[in-house]
User: Fold this.
Amino acid sequence: MHAINYEAPTTVDQALKLLAAHGEKARAICGGTDLIIQLRAGVRRPEHVVDLKNIADMRKLSFSLQHGLRLGAAVPAIELHESADMRRYYPGLTEAAHLIGSLQIQSRASVGGNLCNGSPAADTTPALIALAAKGRVVGPKGERMVAAEDFCVSPGRTVLNPDELLVDLQIAAPSGHSSDAYLRFIPRNEMDIAVVGVGVAVTIDPADDRCIDARIGLGAVGPTPIFAKEASATLVGKKLDAAAIDKAAQLAIAVSSPIDDMRGTAEFRRHVVGVLTRRTLAIAIERARSASSR
Amino acid sequence: MAIVVVPALLRKLTDGVERVPVTGRNLGQVIEDLERQFPGFREQLVQNGEMKPSIAVSIDGEMGTGGLLDRVKDSSEIFFIPAIGGG
Amino acid sequence: MAASNGKNFKVIGTRPIRHDGVDKVTGRAKYGADYAFPDMLFGKMLRSPYAHARIKSINTDKAKALPGVMAVMTAADLPDLPDRVESAGEAPINVAHLTQNLMARDKVLYNGHALAAVCATSPHIAEEAVALIEVDYEILPPVMTVEEAMKPGATILLPNLRNKEEGDKQTNVASHLQFKRGDVAEGFKSADYVVEREFKTAMVHQGYIEPHNAVAMYNSDGKGTIWCSTQGTFAVRGLSAAVAGIPEQDIKVVPAEIGGGFGGKLTIYLEPIALVFSKMTGKPVKMVMSRADVLRATGPTSGSTIRCKMGCTKDGKLVAAQVWMAYEAGAYPGSPVGAGAMTIIAPYVIPNMIIDAYDVVVNRPKTAAYRAPGATNAAMASETIIDELAEMCGIDPADFRLQNAVAEGAAQTAGPPYKKIGFVETLEALKNTPHYKSKLEGPYRGRGVASGFWFNIGLQSSAVVNLHGDGTASLVIGSIDIGGTRAAQAMVAAEVLGIGALDVRPQVADTDTIGYTDVTGGSRTAVTTGVAVFQAAEDAVRQLKERAAKLWEKKPEEIAYTDGVLSTAADPSKKLTLKEIAKQFARTGGPITGRANVNVRGVGPSFATTCVDVEVDPDTGKVKILRATCVQDVGKALHPSYVEGQIQGGTAQGIGWALNEEYVYDDKGILRNFGLLDYRMPTCLDLPEIETVLVEVPAPGHPIGSRGVGEVPIVPPVAAVANAIARATGIRMEVAPMSPPRLLKALLKKRNGADSQAAAAGR
Amino acid sequence: MAKKTVIETTLNGEVTEFLCEPRESLLEALRDTLGLTGSKEGCLTGDCGACTVVIDGRAACSCLVFAVEAQGKKIETIEGLASREGLHVLQQKFLEHASLQCGICTPGFLMSSKALLDRNPNPTEAEIRYALAGNLCRCTGYDKIVRAVVDAAKTLNSGARAA
Assistant:
């Protein structure tokens, strides 16, 4: 690895000052489970590495039914699974976080870092998209909120300017009859990068079992994670029967633009997007129906 | 007399004959006798005075270890086999 | 415990804790990369970014100028060795190819081929310096498959490689072998069912967790020492001497603990480079490969293309087989296609057969041995077709194999007859397992059976047994212990000496301490070195009898030694335990050392039969292994726990090969999956409990009856999984690995085919 | 080259100081600077788990942690697993069940298993297999490793301690 400088600020302001000072030459690090590999491979060559793990604000996970979820960008993925609230109110996002690499990886990697790494195959990003998560981005010019689906712009690149930070992710509390789910396809049963990932969140009207709201996020089937707008919209107002689910799956396939690579062919990915959209919807719908028991 | 079972691709040297009777008390003498009967055999099997490392020899079902000095009986059956390695 | 061969063993067959166990669970065991010396330097290789290119020039000035860089090396710093085949280690090797594989001279022949190296004060600096070496390449077209390589007019990899069969032309075909028996045409005429298919298996890697490593120290007296993780210290000594141009007797190789090999650590990559660097700099030098280096540039095993045709009568008697097989050798000749040819139908009596086998060079890393090299590829073809024939005949797959199985006296593929073997016994044992007797129900579930054969090898071993004053013994051997063979050897010595397994302290010694010993490979270590240990212990016992004879004024022939006690029929009052006589070594002639050196002839071959249950996800093509059982003839298990471990490990590797493991190259011949994220070996979530059944048909000629156990378990699984998938889906897969995209494609093709048929039928 | 910094950490219970360059991994510091070579390098990408250590109670790949990040942390390595009283139950069970062949992956498996049992003393086999999925073993097929962890958990829960 090339020589680097390491800095570990303890406040967001300190971090912003460092990023402003170093500009393009700096790279922020949370868990480092992607960045350190990229540095070794020479894919990224920053002179300064700014570690955000010591910033208390960014290590907080707080949830309430009034204010919803505020997930510090540096919270290790494993802490989601360890939170009863997360498992109960955001099972899909929690599953996605629990699928990132091994437990060794999850004890370091964060959901925020997963998003900022900008990988099209990031497991948590489709789950964030499904939940309409917004990222609080702070920079010298102040603060802006960026929707999860707008965060990535191309493989490895995001909307973050070199002098900006993702401080936390914010998600509304689920209303009574809503829930989420995430499934990915990998050749093995753990440790692989998603060949296809599908995150789904649905809200249903218990009275007639119609869909009030639905959002579908897709991973690894385009240059960035995708918000499947049409696929989501087609469900709204409908009874969530096999036909509706199948329509959504077809539209999810339509919005995918996968590539051939060593992890799977484009043809394979297109087929599996349909399969996983059906399966993930089925799980989310079942959860939403039983969510009334809250 | 001992019998040499000729490997498929060397039968071109023996006009297709598979089993060749030979004389000799050890492998070296047997190969010399083969060479006498079918010129060209020696260079297929021997390289500067030793069995080629790529060829193993089976005499009466035992893999040879003494190279050209391996003993041959009148009743012996001799096979030349590609040497194999394991993992 | 009563041994299957009638002998009664007290230690053999028990399960003592391995002698090197505590060091390994406490992190104290020293592996090659764990060695460090003051003032040590670190070496790194420059590797080719191209699959095939001519090296026009190499400029190392900038690298040399980087602070901390102590030396830079290219092929010019190594002797240019002639094309010469030598037998070093276990298999013959061409030393010119060997040295060019370590350091390319005029051409790079695969992505990752080393062509220069740097030695610096830190691994980071060495890495930075490697990036500063400037190479001018003339890029040549890559030849990636045996089909391309064998085409007339194909790009030639090695100018000196010539085809003697057809008019002495340049070629990529390094060798052609043929095996023939009976009349194949007549044989197929007499067949009621004939199946012919073409199979392809991907290049796969052994996947040992420990990367290759070497630490070398060259002294001003012209003598050098190499510490490394290898399967054969004497092979490292011989091969390194050739490559480095240093006399063999001036090199000592010290065996570090080894973190897996499976055949991949029989040859060398770094050892002579580190030694030459040490000679250049006068300092100790350490070289350790990255995982990417291991995958790109060490020796995986061959991908292959196999056309196999077999026929049987309607009552299930095999009558003919015709095989054409070509294996990727990698950049230099030497694929295991010969072994593939001699194993592909080895388990069966087939009166008429012809097998043509081709060793083909391609722009991929030079292949190395991998657990029963060549046999798994071959079994994927033959065992799939056998299963299909059994299905056609409506005969249970185990019974079909039983009625065609080879037994003592049957001819092997190359001609010689089998001695006592246990193939039939493994099939009968399988039929009695709870697994095979259980019912497998549910959609897209299937059970597959396949069998495998492996020769096992003998070769040379040395052993020394020292008896100590307290009646314990120390055992010195030259065989590297990769999986617990030290414990097995100690148990053999303990059995003969009539003492406890833990009263024998085994030690794997360096090349100056023990006599020549061939590599740990070919499943030979427990068995063949076991013979040396057995004889060395007997030699010690012979001397014990002489000492007792001296004390009791008897002849040595009058002394008996049983269970560690000396006695004589001539005088029942006289008894001496080993502990007691050990105290008297000094006044009866001094210490006792037993020794033996062997070159073992016939060793017992092994057969294994594996049964796998799978469930296929019809929508994704993903295969779940529900249950797996391997039944193997082990002759006589020395330490059953480690025999089971060998079988479970081989089965696991076979399942990985069947499902997801493969080298993926792009159209330019660049390896895409050079890490363990995308070279997908099974994790513990991908495997069920692997059940093992040890069948014990003693190997003739072995003092204990043991057979090699390490390799054969990897032979059946790929075919067994393919057969299970066939039973689950009706699809016969012809490509390994049977990865989700491949299987899904086949599933959809079948479904659509069925639909269009239905449509055609107007339904 | 950036100059070296002093890092203070609690290593296997002992306050420990070491010097490192920012680009050095914790694995390098442990093996090359501190001479604790029990943690192994298998891949340097977090895929094999041979370098697993426990940081503040959680298993982590020391190859994906900068040495400087160890400042103020509590780090446990394989060298600290056994005590004066003897081997840890997991170590004892790995020996009894013949859970290792070449042994290169063993320290990583032991540290992952320890992190698991410290948090979940009574795991199911499925939980064990999930917790060990980040540790590759190429020799054993995992079976004997899983048996050993199951047995170790049973022993710990029965209150018995090995050695």
Q: What stands out?
A: DSSP finds 20 helices and 31 strands in chain C. Chain C has three domains: 21-28+457-600, 34-141+206-297, 374-414+421-452+604-761. Residues 374-414+421-452+604-761 of chain C form a domain with the Aldehyde Oxidoreductase; domain 4 fold (CATH 3.30.365.10). Chain C touches chain A at residues 124, 127-128, 131, 619-622, 659-660, 664, 672-673, 677-678, 680, 682-683, 685-686, 739-741, 744-745, 748 (CB under 8 Å).
